């Protein structure tokens, strides 16, 4: 046996060891990749006495995408006889402030928000507060007004509350255009039907009150980079609107707005915020969504009285934050929860 063969023999166990380790490593990586690809969560190691998080932030899609409403193809709009109206309507929804904001080039009747800030991508996103049911479900009787509301009245509701502004006349060019756009978006939806993924996600109720103090921590971790520590967002340099809209303060939605209700805020945020989250890839846990809603909605914002709202107080939603109520629960509980007991009492 010469010198080289001899040393090779002595290295043999080492080489075999390395080989086996390499094979094991490749196996583990392939396994992890498979789990990831198949969307399966690899089993978590659990320390004795430490419960696995029930409310994992990396939870799955909020709804099965199969059968989800989709907006009609935008490139087909030119085949409509009122294509110009529809296009102007979409433009107004996407860039409301430029036309109708504090420096609006058509009129100055709103606070600088765009409809699209809350009705994402001009109202086309599943569970992004889309307009899929606008054509099919209006006019309808709503508890807030106690009357039948047509789509114009509903749009003006958002102007007066979410945009803390003034109404548009039904026969104005702008109102006609927005209605035309919504009718086009919902053209394939049968009368009376609410398509899958319409509106806002219903976040499961917590068995405790939503907590503004926990919410503040979540805000500072997940929201400040865009909406800023003072909640005032970031204005575009030309002043025509926001890059990141304000969440509270004088330029935000007022206390009569839908988002001032905890369930609307939590549901909108759960499926859409931080920006980039979707119903298929939500980022916040349910608890985080409720708590951040409690934080944002406990800070100052414009107040406005709508004395004709809720002529029948028993029609108020469980999370309507202002009394009087037809039940025994406090205003505090109607605002922050826990809501389960209120809901049960209401169903009796
Ligand atoms: C600050 C957020 C916000 C802004 C900005 C906003 N909205 Fe809304 N809008 C809401 C919320 C919340 C609802 C209620 C959704 C629900 O309860 O499911 C709503 C509901 C609606 C509805 C009824 C949809 C349905 O299917 O019942 C219409 C129509 C509407 N908004 C139009 C507009 C228009 C037009 C603008 C711009 C002028 C606008 N909104 C701006 C938050 C906003
Ligand atoms: C990466 C930037 C970013 C982060 C982080 C982010 N947002 Fe937003 N947010 C936006 C943008 C942009 C819009 C407007 C969307 C549009 O116009 O398309 C928006 C809109 C909103 C709106 C509706 C408009 C308004 O002004 O009322 C709410 C409510 C909101 N965000 C809440 C949150 C909350 C709560 C968090 C943290 C959990 C959060 N956002 C994190 C970028 C962000």
Query: pLDDT below 50 for ≥5 consecutive residues: which ranges?
Result: 42-57
Class from helix and strand fractions: mainly alpha
Spatial order of strands in the largest sheet: 1-2
Residues in helices, as a percent range: 25-40%
- DSSP summary, beta strand count: 4
Radius of gyration: 26 Å
Largest sheet: 2 strands, antiparallel
Instruction: List bound small molecules.
Output: heme C
In whole angstroms, how far apart are the ends?
94 Å
* SSE string: HHHHHHEEHHHHEEHHHH
CATH topology of the domain at 74-185: Cytochrome Bc1 Complex, Chain D, domain 2
User: What sort of overall outline do the alpha carbons produce when their principal axes are compared?
Assistant: globular
The CATH homologous superfamily name of the domain at 74-185 equals Cytochrome c-like domain
Mean pLDDT: 91
Strand content: under 5%
Instruction: State the CATH class of the domain at 74-185.
Output: Mainly Alpha
Number of helices: 14
Kindly describe this structure.
Among the domains are: 74-185, Cytochrome c-like domain (Cytochrome Bc1 Complex, Chain D, domain 2); 212-309 and 330-340, Orthogonal Bundle (Cytochrome Bc1 Complex, Chain D, domain 2), CATH 1.10.760.10. It has 14 helices and four strands. With 348 residues, the protein is mainly alpha-helical. The protein is 40% helix and 3% strand. The strands form two sheets. A two-stranded antiparallel ribbon has the order 1-2. The chain starts with a helix and ends with a helix. Strand 3 and strand 4 (242-244) form a beta hairpin. Bound molecules: heme C (2 copies). Residues 113-114, 116-118, 120, 222-223, 225-227, 244-247, 253, 259, 268-269, 273-275, 284, 292, 296 line the site of one heme C.
């Amino acid at each position: 046996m010469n010198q080289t063969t001899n040393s090779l023999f002595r290295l043999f166990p080492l080489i075999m060891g390395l080989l086996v380790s390499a094979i094991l490593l490749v196996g583990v990586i392939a396994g992890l990749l498979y789990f990831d690809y198949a969307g399966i969560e690899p089993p978590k190691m659990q320390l004795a006495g430490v419960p696995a998080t029930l409310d994992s932030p990396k939870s799955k899609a909020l709804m099965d995408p199969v059968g989800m409403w989709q907006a009609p193809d935008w490139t087909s709009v030119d085949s409509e006889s009122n294509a110009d109206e529809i296009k102007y309507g979409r433009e107004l929804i996407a860039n409301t402030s430029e036309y109708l904001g504090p420096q609006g080039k058509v009129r100055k009747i709103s606070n600088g928000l765009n409809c699209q800030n809350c009705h994402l991508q001009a109202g086309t996103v599943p569970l992004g507060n889309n307009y899929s049911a606008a054509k099919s479900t209006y006019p309808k009787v709503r508890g807030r007004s106690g009357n039948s509301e047509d789509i114009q009245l509903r749009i003006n509701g958002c102007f007066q509350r979410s945009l803390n502004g003034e109404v548009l006349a039904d026969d104005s060019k702008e109102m006609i255009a927005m209605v035309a756009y919504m009718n086009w978006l919902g053209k394939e939806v049968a009368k009376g039907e609410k398509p899958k993924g319409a509106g806002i996600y219903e976040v499961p109720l917590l068995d405790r009150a939503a907590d503004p103090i926990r919410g503040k921590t979540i805000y500072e971790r997940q929201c400040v980079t865009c909406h800023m520590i003072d909640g005032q967002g970031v204005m575009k340099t030309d002043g025509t609107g926001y890059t990141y809209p304000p969440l509270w303060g004088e330029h935000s939605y007022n206390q009569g707005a839908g988002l001032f209700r905890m369930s609307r805020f939590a549901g909108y945020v759960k499926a859409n915020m931080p920006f980039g989250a979707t119903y298929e890839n939500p980022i916040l846990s349910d608890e985080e969504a409720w708590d951040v809603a409690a934080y944002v909605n406990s800070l100052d914002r414009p107040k406005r009285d709508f004395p004709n709202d809720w002529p029948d107080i028993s029609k108020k939603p469980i999370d309507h934050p202002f009394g009087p109520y037809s039940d025994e629960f406090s205003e505090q509980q109607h605002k922050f929860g826990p809501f389960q007991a209120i809901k049960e009492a209401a169903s009796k």
